[in-house]
């Protein structure tokens, strides 16, 4: 009998005798099904991956007790369901209760701070728009598009040293403009 035609029950019998190759074969046959089942149950791919792997560890431990009253695939899905429900139940228990939630300090900005930040951001955008094109482009690529100095050099086809020089002068001009307009360098 070849590995492809060997029944799942025969493979479980081999696992019960300590055959690791049989576990690998069952893993290859059933892992995707177990994973998809758990992913649907939990809504989490990461949780599904962890649980699916645990199912096959459980197969290794429980193989000697498998009585064959159901198909191996059904048995594996049953183990997966139990593990998913247990993890979801534990996760609910770990959630914070209402009293504890009320005691957590609110770190959100006050309306005043939000207004100050919006005002400063609008002023900063105006100052950036007033910069010479070569400085404005470097600032825009760095801060609004998250490009590194090297990437900016590639995009603009200029040396990295030139990017750094333009960045230095652009920041200096922005700092001077903010100070002249009465804005503190800090945030907000």
From TrEMBL:
Belongs to the sigma-70 factor family. ECF subfamily. SUPFAM superfamilies: Sigma2 domain of RNA polymerase sigma factors, Sigma3 and sigma4 domains of RNA polymerase sigma factors. PANTHER family: BLR3042 PROTEIN, RNA POLYMERASE ECF-TYPE SIGMA FACTO. This is Sigma-70 family RNA polymerase sigma factor. GO terms for biological process: DNA-templated transcription initiation. GO terms for molecular function: DNA binding; sigma factor activity. Keywords: Sigma factor, Transcription, Transcription regulation. The keyword Ligase does not apply. Pfam families: Sigma70_r2 (PF04542), Sigma70_r4_2 (PF08281).
